[in-house]
Structures are given as structure tokens and as C-alpha cells.
């Protein structure tokens, strides 16, 4: 293989370092030491620069990098008028780019010629690229009935486990892997493709990854995202006019909830808790009753709700899903609650009368 064609694949550690740099540079007043340290880190190797490219692409589409004032942080990266007159636009050959990687790297040139533009104008360039290439879109829909689960092998090598009573739309094009969870729950094991991000739209949440494992649970009032491996960017799907969508980066064993009120505090999770349903169980660890019933309702023919006076009671334990109605009774017994079946369309859990 030609040495000039070697690809520099960043490790998870380098990707984490790139994310840390993006977070630091988004601060109100990066210091001169920050600027020097960033330049040194970028100059260390091509893998660092590739890692920053990937994270810039990941965060750029979430709107985070619109607050990254590279021109102010690095004024020397803006070419002078004389330089602009001397330099004529041309398309460098692949071999020339690779050769430049081997002979050295200049921070101002890199910022203006690559990642800074991709970071700040990523969405516009992506849309333009889609329009120019007119890439065909492959759309498929997958559904499950109550009590049914299924595993879906996607064309890119990714795998999706679809929980009961769920609906997923998949749209793959040459440049993006886009999915939409219309209802229910799904676990995504995404094949890594740096040049083709994988996105999930689910209610109030937008999720964007390059390659990782995560669970998405869409509920009537919120969407919960739990990560079991890799890095996942989560942002609000909608905000009030003029406001920047909130966003957060999740790593292994972290979770967040997104609702019309914004993002919750990032919490801790585990593979056992996030993927309990894939093993025919529900695992709760001091989970509010209202949230526990939201999960159980996916399996019940008649949904259940908690009365206002008991909805905040917490529940811990492992419950089997082979008989959801018996599981509901077990939860009521564990919390010493009464079940009201007077409404044929709803089972209400409330405190027992004295």
C-alpha cells in the first residue's frame, strides 16, 4: 500500500481529547496558554487533526460550534488581503494532501482550509453536497406489535433491536444514515462510518453518532437516551424562537432525558438497566413509579397510571415481562398500592384506603 494513502484513524482517547478541546474553546475567554496548547496538540500528529475533524462534524450539525469564534481565537488564521490575491483556489490532489501531512502542518492554513469551515458551515455544506450529488434515499419502515420484539440488520452493518409496540423509519443516502423513532423503544448498535453520520430523531430529541451503542426510549412526555458504548451527541429537536438548542455529549454508562422543558441532568446508567428489556426484564433502581409505568405500558393491553399522590414513589427490583399484568400486580404489591379497574381503558394505582 502506498504510504501516502494510509488513513489516520483516531482512537477513542483522541476523540475524547478533541471533545475536551471543543468544550474548552467554547468558553468565554480562552487564555493564551489554551491557544498555544491547542496548537501544539493539533501539530502532534494527523490522528489528532482527524479526531478534531470528526468531532467538529459531530457537534457542528448540533449548532454547538456556532459559538466557537475561531477568527477571534486565532486571528492569524485569517489570510491578509495580499495573501488572498496571491493564492488562487485550486483543488489539491489526494497525494499532495497526504504528502503535506508527512512534511508538516500549519495551524492557520489548516483552520482556514479544513476543519474550521467544516465546523462552522457543516450543515450548509452537507445540504449542498446532498443537492449536488442527488444521492438516492433508501427508506424502510419497521414495526412491532404489542408483545413482539425484533432484530433488524441494516444495510450499513448496523443492528437495531426494536422493542414491543414500536415503529422505526430508516432513510439511508450516500452521505447520511437517518432514522426516526415514531414510537416505542430501540437499541442501536451502529457500525462506524466516519464520513456518514448516523442520526435518530425521536420526539423532543435529536441524536447523532459516528459509531456506538445506545438505547432510545420515546415516551409521551419525553425521550430517554442511554449510552452503553462510545460517544453520543444529544440535542433538543425544538426550542423557542431565537434560542440555541441545548445539547450534551454522552459517553458509556450515561443517560439523559429530553422533553419540551429541555435536557435533564446527565445521570448514571448501566448495560443491565439500559438493556433490561432485551433480556425480557425490567430493572428499576429507585425509579419513580410514573417512569416505571411508562416502560411497563409498552407491554400492557390496558395502560396503567399512578395517582398524583403516589407517582413519585420510587421502585427498585427486577421484574419479568413474560406476564405484564402479573408484573403490574407485583409492583402494586411492592409499593402497597391499590389497583382501580373501574375505567376499562386505564388501570389506576393509588394509595390504599385506611
Reconstruct the topology from this structure.
Layout: H1 12-25, H2 32-44, H3 46-60, H4 70-73, H5 81-86, H6 94-103, H7 107-113, H8 115-120, H9 122-133, E1 138-143, E2 150-153, E3 159-162, E4 167-172, E5 177-189, E6 198-202, E7 205-209, E8 213-218, E9 222-229, E10 232-236, E11 247-250, E12 254-259, E13 262-263, E14 267-268, H10 271-274, E15 281-288, H11 289-296, E16 304-306, E17 314-320, H12 324-334, E18 337-343, E19 346-351
Parallel strand pairs: 5-6, 16-19
Antiparallel strand pairs: 1-4, 2-3, 3-5, 4-5, 5-8, 6-7, 7-10, 8-9, 9-12, 10-11, 12-13, 12-14, 15-17, 18-19
Helix pairs in contact: 1-3, 2-3
Notes on the protein architecture:
Residues 1-7 and 61-135 have low confidence and may be disordered. This protein has 354 residues and is α+β, with helices and mostly antiparallel strands. It is elongated, with a radius of gyration of 24 Å. It starts with 11 loop residues before the first helix and ends with a strand. A hairpin with a 3-residue loop joins strand 8 and strand 9 (222-229). Helix 2 (32-44) crosses helix 3 (46-60). It has 3 domains: 3-131, no CATH class; 138-272, Jelly Rolls; 280-351, 3-Layer(bab) Sandwich (Phage tail protein beta-alpha-beta fold). Strands 1, 2, 3, 4, 5, 6, 7, 8, 9, 10, 11, 12, 13 and 14 form a 14-stranded mixed sheet that branches. It has helices spanning 12-25, 32-44, 46-60, 70-73, 81-86, 94-103, 107-113, 115-120, 122-133, 271-274, 289-296, 324-334, and strands spanning 138-143, 150-153, 159-162, 167-172, 177-189, 198-202, 205-209, 213-218, 222-229, 232-236, 247-250, 254-259, 262-263, 267-268, 281-288, 304-306, 314-320, 337-343, 346-351. InterPro entries: FecR (IPR006860), FecR_N (IPR032623), Ferrdict_sens_TM (IPR012373). It holds the Pfam family FecR. This is DUF4880 domain-containing protein. Residues 142-232 form the FecR protein domain. GO terms for molecular function: sigma factor antagonist activity.
Amino acid at each position: 500500500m502506498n504510504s501516502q494513502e494510509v488513513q489516520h484513524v483516531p482512537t477513542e482517547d483522541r476523540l475524547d481529547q478533541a471533545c475536551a478541546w471543543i468544550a474548552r474553546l467554547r468558553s468565554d475567554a480562552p487564555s493564551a496558554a489554551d491557544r498555544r496548547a491547542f496548537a501544539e496538540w493539533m501539530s502532534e500528529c494527523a490522528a489528532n487533526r482527524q479526531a478534531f475533524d470528526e468531532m467538529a462534524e459531530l457537534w457542528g450539525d448540533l449548532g454547538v460550534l456556532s459559538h466557537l469564534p475561531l477568527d477571534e481565537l486565532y486571528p492569524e488564521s485569517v489570510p491578509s488581503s495580499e495573501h488572498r490575491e496571491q493564492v488562487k483556489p485550486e483543488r489539491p490532489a489526494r497525494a499532495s494532501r497526504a504528502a503535506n501531512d508527512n512534511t508538516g502542518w500549519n495551524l492557520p492554513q489548516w483552520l482556514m482550509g479544513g476543519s474550521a469551515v467544516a465546523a462552522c458551515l457543516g450543515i450548509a455544506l452537507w445540504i449542498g453536497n446532498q443537492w449536488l450529488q442527488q444521492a438516492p434515499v433508501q427508506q424502510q419502515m419497521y414495526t412491532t406489535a404489542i408483545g413482539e420484539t425484533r432484530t433488524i440488520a441494516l444495510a450499513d452493518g448496523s443492528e437495531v433491536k426494536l422493542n414491543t409496540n414500536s415503529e422505526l423509519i430508516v432513510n439511508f443516502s450516500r452521505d447520511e444514515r437517518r432514522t426516526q423513532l415514531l414510537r416505542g423503544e430501540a437499541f442501536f448498535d451502529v457500525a462506524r462510518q466516519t464520513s456518514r453520520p448516523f442520526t435518530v430523531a425521536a420526539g423532543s430529541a435529536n441524536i447523532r453518532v459516528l459509531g456506538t451503542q445506545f438505547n432510545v426510549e420515546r415516551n409521551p412526555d419525553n425521550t430517554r437516551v442511554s449510552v452503553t458504548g462510545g460517544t453520543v451527541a444529544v440535542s433538543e429537536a425544538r426550542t423557542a424562537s431565537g434560542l440555541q438548542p441545548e445539547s450534551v455529549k454522552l459517553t458509556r454508562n450515561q443517560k439523559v432525558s429530553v422533553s419540551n422543558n429541555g435536557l435533564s441532568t446527565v445521570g448514571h446508567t448501566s448495560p443491565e438497566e439500559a438493556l433490561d428489556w432485551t433480556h425480557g426484564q425490567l430493572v428499576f433502581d429507585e425509579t419513580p413509579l410514573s417512569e416505571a409505568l411508562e416502560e411497563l405500558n409498552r407491554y400492557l393491553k390496558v395502560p396503567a397510571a399512578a395517582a398524583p399522590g403516589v407517582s413519585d414513589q420510587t421502585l427498585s427490583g427486577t421484574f419479568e415481562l413474560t406476564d405484564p399484568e402479573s408484573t403490574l400486580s407485583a409492583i402494586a404489591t411492592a409499593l402497597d398500592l391499590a389497583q382501580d379497574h373501574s375505567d376499562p381503558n386505564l388501570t389506576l394505582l393509588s394509595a390504599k384506603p385506611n
